[in-house]
Amino acid sequence: MTVTLEKLTKDIVPSQEMIPEYFRIIRTQKNTHDTFTIELEPPKNGFSFAPGQFNMLYMFGVGEVPISISGDPSDRNTLTHTIRAVGSVTRAMQKLKKGDFVGVRGPFGTHWPAEESKGNDIVIVAGGIGLAPLRPSIYHILSNREKYGKVVLLYGTRMPKDILYRKELEQWRARFDLEVLATVDRAASDWKGNVGVVTTLIPRSHFDPPNTVAMVCGPEIMMRFSVQDLLKRGVPVENIYVSMERNMKCGIGFCGHCQCGPTFICKDGPVYPYNAVKDIFIKREI
Amino acid sequence: METLEPLLSEHPFLKGLDPKHLQLITGCASNVRFDAGQIIFREGEEADQFYIIRNGKVTLQIYTPGRGSIIIDALTEGDILGWSWLIPPYQWRFDAVAGELTRAIALDGKCLRNKCESDHDLGYELLKRFASIVDSRLESTRLRLLDMYDSNP
Description:
The structure holds two protein chains of two kinds.
Chain A: H1 5-12, H2 15-18, E1 21-30, E2 35-41, E3 54-59, E4 63-68, E5 79-84, H3 88-93, E6 101-108, E7 121-127, H4 131-143, E8 151-157, H5 166-173, E9 179-184, E10 187-188, E11 194-195, E12 212-217, H6 220-233, E13 240-243, E14 259-260, E15 263-264, H7 265-268, E16 271-273, H8 274-281
Parallel strand pairs in A: 7-8, 7-12, 8-9, 9-11, 12-13
Antiparallel strand pairs in A: 1-2, 1-6, 2-5, 3-4, 3-6, 13-16, 14-15
Chain B: H1 5-10, H2 19-26, E1 29-34, E2 39-41, E3 49-55, E4 57-64, E5 68-76, E6 80-81, E7 95-98, E8 102-108, H3 109-118, H4 120-145
Antiparallel strand pairs in B: 1-8, 2-7, 3-6, 3-8, 4-5, 4-7
Helix pairs in contact in B: 3-4
């Protein structure tokens, strides 16, 4: 029997998930000096995702990168991504304009337990661009606000100029049903907000620890220390969720680039119950 | 006469303290208020007090030539401001400025130092409690040194 390359490829690669679709850019926005948001128009039938999932965005001729979805999950007609320009692909994406196209594969990965956490207090802890993958959860919780207890958003960045979604944060802070605390590592003397790492906000915020679900996203070192402070406050370990990040390539657990210990971040993550990854957090070899 | 003892006894920093020690501390306490922008103390000045912030906000600042004053920490309701009164040469290392109208309980550091010298149990209790604050501020400072929001996973 002859095995053609075409057949072999068909057998081992789930082709549909590997083929990007063209999405047209309908809006771009500069968020900070190195971060921008693009809004995409799905080609047909809208686009569904769960908060915390990510897409592979293809910059034709340059490469592909995994980017979390940062928009409203109830809006099927707009797909939003907030991107930090740090590599060749994302720097090229920064130059895209309204009307340009990017390739999209996804959505991939696990999601925040926003829906499953109804009836609980919610604490969202975000560091830097980690606010972007949490924003869909915030939208979901706010549009079902009466189904949750206290909702707290704690956000830390390096400096005031690094704060993402500044206007939206101000709107959220003005609400009576949401506690928003932001902090920066350092600031000039005209800064009126908090100064200190995001973990210092955990003891200051108001929630009922035993009945709280925590969603934490940011650099791993930030998540490690945030989890410690959440545990210190009395949040049950099984109620803490984190979002892991690795070098994701295929998005479907096929290539192995994002393997982290026994799991593939793209398929088994990026959102994990803390319990499932706590050993990986402190393993130097991984 | 109503004293600050009930307020002090409820504060997490002093909770569980032996009543006789609490009484000694209350003897060194007074209510203070700072308007927004008011300087509470300046770097280099004698550190003769510490404060339990009841409400408001205090920023710790350091003046850097060419860059002006940089905020290095912000303290709010319930936080303890100042431990230089406990450690020689008893001088403030930073500026403290009220970020907004701030009410606090001031504790006379000199008075407390003397009481700690004559009552080592009180001294040890206070030192343990301050060590815990120093520890958490040190951890926070170390995390900031990592510049963690800028790092990859």
